[in-house]
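Let's sit down with a protein and look at its sequence and fold side by side. Which protein we use is up to you, so please pick one and set it down. Label the sequence line and the structure token line clearly, so we can match residues to local backbone shapes. Go ahead whenever you are ready, and we will take it from there:

***
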Amino acid sequence: MKKIFLSVLFAVIFAAGAYAEVIGTLNRSNADIPENLTIEGVMYTQGYKDSLLAYVMDGKFKPEGTSMKFYDSVTLMQLALNKGDIDVFTAPEFVGEYMLRANPEYILRGFMVGKNPIALAFGFLEENRELCDRFSKAVEAMEEEGKIGLLTRDFITGPAAGNPTKVKFEKFDGAETINVAVTGDMPPIDYVGADGEPAGFNTAILSEIGRRLHVNINVVNIETGARATALKTGRVNAVFWFQMFTGYENFKEQPDIPEGVIVSTPYYGWNKSMLIGKKN
């Protein structure tokens, strides 16, 4: 579930009028990224060679300067921010809003807005294409019927977003069991409570898919960086995946999707991230 900020063109607009020298962001699962690159270097390294990153600060265009540091989880980025190793970290807007509510010491420092949205989807091994197709058809039906919009309201834009609620999974005697990995690293979408139990939007999506496909969903908690390994070793059948989808005809061409992994139809997307820092 990696790199939340990339697109063909980004504008970074800082609320405080100053820009951060070091930005923390999530690693990609399938990209060999050197440390301490500039953002321009990150764009090139990850396959976005035709990309341009623009900073707008104090009304002036500044195309260079900011360095990136990469982390395997939002928790590690928060620790780095607290230690002063980074100035801000990136988070999708809905995650940033949750972080600001939950952490009074945090402050919004700026935004990153891209032309190409980033999407949530399910990742599967290529050999499980039939299961991927079943999930995709369920997602497409949920979108057409307005169910995803209702779940978005209930768990992301509505009051429950501030306190992700647990979702009941129906159990079907004798039915197939699908093991799905969650990390809890993107509250309130991918969320695991203090009791270790998943809750929120992704679990609601999974519950509805399980009901439609008449399968038993078993949620497995794993570390963010272990998603691809858990999938390839058979520990889980599916994982939540981030991906760029607008402007890419073939999802496999994207540098964050490992060889042998395929992705379902996306079920949620965004193109705006927040830069979260600490109050002075």
User: Anything to note?
Assistant: The longest helix spans residues 129-145. Helices lie at 39-45, 74-83, 93-102, 129-145, 147-157, 201-213, 227-232. The chain is about 25% helix and 30% strand. Confidence is low (pLDDT under 50) at residues 1-11, 30-34, 40-63, 245-252.
